[in-house]
Specification:
five-stranded antiparallel beta sheet; globular
Amino acid sequence: MAYRLTSACCLLLVVLAGCHRAPKKPPTLQWTGQWERTDLVGAYHSYIRMDDGRVAYIGNHGETALNVAFTREPGDLLRWTPRKEVMAFEVITDLPDPADTKKPAADRFLFLTGPRVAMLASGDFLGLGMICRGYPAVDGRNYIASFTGTAENVNLAKQAMLAGGDPPKEARWNYAGKVKGPVGEYLEEQTPFTVYPGGGGLIHLPDGPASPDHVRPTRNRFLAFTGYVGSPDPKKDAWLWLVLLYSADGREWFFAKDSTGAIRNLTPGYSTKEGYAFPFVLRRADDEWWMWRSGDFQGDDKALEKDKSLGVDGIFLYYSPDGLNWQFVRREAFQNAVMGKNGKPLGVKNMSIYYDPKEKRIHGFLSVVNEDGAGWWRKYHNIAKVTRE
């Protein structure tokens, strides 16, 4: 009898100890080398690994709606072909002219604030971007639109560009239009000058359900994390929100909700001291999600016009074990990452991430002020290592 009581007491102590165990520490992420200059300019990019080991950059640089570039050799992420257009502004037909709604607006613009592009299991591509009239939007209204490309589109462009030519017409991507569902309805009813759906990283889960899973939003086939969208009072606090969008088909998009049925803010309790702009989310594993988001620009607009070396006041790292519950990790020390010709550090803006699925390596592409003048920002590359206890 005494033996049974002792065993029961020991079991109870083990259970109680488990209940009071310290929270599991997040993995440690560290950059392993120096930030090295690449041939890429611009700030908002997606990166896709090709079958031959080369990487495709897909982005936007103002003069075109969508452009691509490719690494010249497999494994070398510093040297890239010049970027070339694969989609023009003329394909945008669902931004009507205010004076004649039967015509598309002459100033229609596709500003890909982090052109979110994912490669599907078929080898084809799905992307999201922001469309507006002029930039910044002249009427204060911004929308999310989707577009698609095929494996053949990209391979034709790659072959032509590696040979020094331009992509043929057959390499053009298709514009699908404004997204549907609750996200599209929200953006149609938005309050002008308050919603700017910016973010990076379009996550594709091939095993996601064919119909939207509203109970487990992070299990859906397509995921996108977005800032500036969903707040009940956009004029007051939209910039402090991070929202998860999900879809089963890439066209109909939904908001992840909280227990009350309201759109869920994934970063409650954090202020601008922990960043709020240009979020880029990487899902490295089912239980390991990382996010980088930028703080505010240093100085006012007039100061920025005079001195483009002024960047944001920091890029901030977050971690989540499930994609829904996020914790602040640290302010990344990037302010002295790259020195300019005058010996002073160059300003930084945001982070884009390429995760190599075969080598399982995190590649960072940091936007740094470009002293060459060909675009405001140039990408610098480094590799991160994750250690899990």
